[in-house]
Amino acid sequence: MTFDKKAFRHALGAFPTGVAVITASGGGEHIGITVNSFGSVSLEPPLVMWCIDKKSDRYHIFTKAPAFTISILGTKHEAVSSRLAKQGEHRLDGIELMGTELGPPALADSLSVFECERFAVHEAGDHAILIGHVLRFHCHEAGPPLVFFGGRYGALAG
Length: 158
Ligand SMILES: Cc1cc2nc3c(=O)[nH]c(=O)nc-3n(C[C@H](O)[C@H](O)[C@H](O)COP(=O)(O)O)c2cc1C
Fold this sequence. Notes:
Elements: H1 5-12, E1 17-18, E2 20-26, E3 29-35, E4 39-42, E5 47-53, H2 59-64, E6 67-72, H3 78-83, E7 97-98, E8 106-107, E9 112-124, E10 127-139, E11 147-149, E12 152-154
Antiparallel strand pairs: 1-11, 2-3, 2-6, 4-5, 5-10, 6-9, 7-8, 9-10, 11-12
The structure holds flavin mononucleotide (FMN).
Residues 19, 33-37, 50-53, 56-58, 85, 87-88, 90, 148 line the site of flavin mononucleotide.
């Protein structure tokens, strides 16, 4: 049986998600990547997850980093989200940031921030699943969430 990858992608796009930026430190700088694979995993211990494509330029930095920070984006972050989704565009220069205790900065005005230490990295086909142990979190409820649906950005209705 042939598997239609394009149709598969299209079908996956029918699941609306939020958008997050993950930041980590590597090679003497902080870097970021836009993801919509973020999810909650466990309350006790507090674990969250996201996935990274093995083809990403940033794969080795993120999978080896001892800590990463997850910023949940609002509609006001759409331009930053697009920028950090571009191939090779991972520097945070010019982006408004907020310091964290673990090190990798959060995006200013994020809806929530999760400061994580690396808990596990699992092989998963052409991606790896990164599980983070949440050591600190902040919830700012700073406006409407940025939503991704059908390959486009949007916002919640009403
Ligand atoms: C809304 C959105 C969600 C994305 N989610 C993921 C994701 O969960 N994991 C991932 O590896 N890449 C994801 N990407 C793609 C990356 O942001 C980036 O485009 C990709 O890593 C290519 O750049 P690089 O090779 O420089 O890392 C997403 C892109 C967008 C626009």
